[in-house]
């Protein structure tokens, strides 16, 4: 262990208690909600750091090297959660454990994730970074999700006022456009955000799942701090254009679904059945056939988990962090054990040789099935119209 690591205390968290087999695919039928975290690959208790000390930079914004995604906390995306009070406790535990980046959006709930985040963080507001997103066509008064997207400047400004109330704050540290609106030039969106920055309501901004030309045009109006795209062992699309573009322009990168919705933790397998209302049931990559075809990724992770004394989930997060120093994964967790296990990733790193070896093996595995349902996927990589 390095000097830096040696001063850290370890605890055997609840992550170590669950006793599922180390090699996923050998477990019997589960529901996704029943699946939990496991021992490290070598059978030792999963290491769960008590304090996350490492920091990364997204543009000029410093954040913890792992953030916490809060999308699933309202309990209407991946199935029900234990309770709202528990979600608030998890966020506060994350703060206590050194997490500083919290990711939400007006559409999560809608509104309820922001309310949970606002309540949980109100006493530590100045010590944390809150990221939220606008862009879906949500009625600012009722929270009703209307069809399509809406990034018209007047709508953005109203949406942000609502966010500030729900988040119990006077500013949003990082405001993203959730999806590019094909009806609104990005220059108008950037102009609206620039006004919000001037007014002190927003500090930094970013785009989620944008087309590359839209990134350039947005960045020219006001520098972007981060792009937030899906990126994991199961979806490496950003390596083609977006990551090189981020490097060129000095923009940070936040990966959503860094655990591939839980698949790369080894707790989802072809026997998994998603509960009613679990969005993951509609993801083509999660058909029984595709889950079966994709199990070699979990097998690879399980082998490396034994080698590194980590869990498959920790290796997944460490792999995304190893790609670039300005990449920050934001796994969601609605169980404290998962949160602590994910934070424990800090204890692991791939050496350059290991990263090469692991990635070579990964490259040889064909990934089957689209990452999102077609109607959602169609909203990714969109270029905004010209003014
Ligand atoms: N910009 C966008 O368009 C966009 C889209 C989707 C998501 N996001 C953001 O990205 C965040 C993360 O994405 P995501 O939730 O879709 O995917 P994810 O983080 O890849 O996966 C979350 C799933 O993995 C499980 N999990 C977490 N840690 C685990 C562990 N150590 N062991 C076993 N299972 C574990 C969670 O279970 P439990 O809940 O039971 O702990 C949950 O079911 C969201 O919260 C949101 O903030 C952004």
Any idea what the radius of gyration is? 20 Å
Beta-strand percent range: 5-15%
How many structural units, i.e. domains? 1
* Ligand roster: NADP nicotinamide-adenine-dinucleotide phosphate
* CATH architecture field: Alpha-Beta Barrel
Described by strand count, sense and barrel closure, the largest sheet is: 8 strands, parallel
What is the average of the pLDDT values? 90
Q: How many individual β-strands?
A: 14
The outline comes out as globular
Query: Uncertain segments of ≥5 residues (pLDDT<50)?
Result: 1-30
Terminal Cα span: 55 Å
Characterization of the model:
The protein is α/β, with parallel strands linked by helices and 387 residues long. It has a single domain, classed as TIM Barrel. It is built from twelve helices and 14 strands. The strands form four sheets. It has an eight-stranded parallel beta sheet, with helices on one face. The longest helix has 21 residues, at 288-308. Mean pLDDT is 90; it is low at 1-30. Residues 37, 69-72, 78, 103, 178, 208-209, 228, 256-262, 265, 267, 313, 330-335, 338, 341-342 line the site of NADP nicotinamide-adenine-dinucleotide phosphate.
């Amino acid at each position: 262990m390095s000097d830096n690591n040696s001063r850290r205390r370890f605890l055997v968290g609840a992550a170590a208690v669950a006793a599922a087999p180390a090699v996923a695919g050998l477990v019997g039928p589960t529901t996704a909600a029943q699946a939990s975290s496991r021992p490290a690959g070598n059978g030792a208790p999963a290491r769960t750091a008590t304090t996350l000390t490492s920091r990364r930079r997204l543009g000029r914004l410093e954040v913890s090297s792992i953030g916490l995604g809060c999308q699933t906390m309202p309990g209407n995306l991946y199935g029900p959660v234990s309770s709202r009070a528990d979600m608030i406790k998890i966020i506060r535990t994350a703060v206590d454990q050194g997490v500083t980046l919290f990711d939400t959006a007006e559409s999560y709930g809608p509104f309820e994730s922001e309310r949970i985040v606002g309540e949980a963080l109100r006493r530590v507001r100045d010590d944390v970074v809150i990221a939220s997103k606008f862009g879906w066509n949500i009625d600012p008064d009722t929270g009703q999700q209307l069809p399509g997207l809406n990034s018209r400047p007047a709508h953005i400004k109203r949406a942000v006022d609502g966010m500030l109330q729900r988040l119990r704050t006077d500013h949003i540290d990082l405001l993203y456009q959730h999806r590019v609106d094909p009806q609104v030039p990005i220059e108008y969106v950037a102009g609206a955000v620039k006004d919000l920055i001037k007014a002190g309501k927003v500090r930094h901004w970013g785009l989620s799942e944008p087309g590359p030309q839209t990134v350039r045009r947005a960045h020219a109006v006001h520098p972007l701090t981060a792009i937030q795209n899906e990126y994991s062992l199961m979806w490496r699309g950003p390596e083609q254009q977006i990551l090189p573009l981020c490097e060129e322009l000095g923009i940070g990168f936040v990966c959503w679904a860094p655990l591939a919705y839980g698949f790369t933790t080894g707790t989802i397998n072809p026997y998994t059945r998603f509960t009613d209302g679990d969005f993951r049931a509609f993801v083509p990559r999660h058909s029984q056939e595709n889950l079966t075809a994709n199990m070699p990724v979990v097998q690879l992770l399980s082998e490396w988990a034994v080698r590194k004394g980590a869990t498959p989930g920790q290796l997944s997060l460490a792999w995304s962090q190893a790609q670039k120093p300005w990449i920050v994964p934001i796994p969601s967790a609605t169980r404290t054990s998962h949160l602590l296990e994910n934070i424990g990733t800090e204890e692991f790193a791939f050496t350059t040789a290991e990263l090469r070896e692991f990635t070579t093996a990964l490259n040889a595995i064909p990934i089957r099935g689209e990452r999102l349902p077609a109607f959602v996927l169609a909203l990714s990589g969109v270029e905004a119209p010209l003014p």
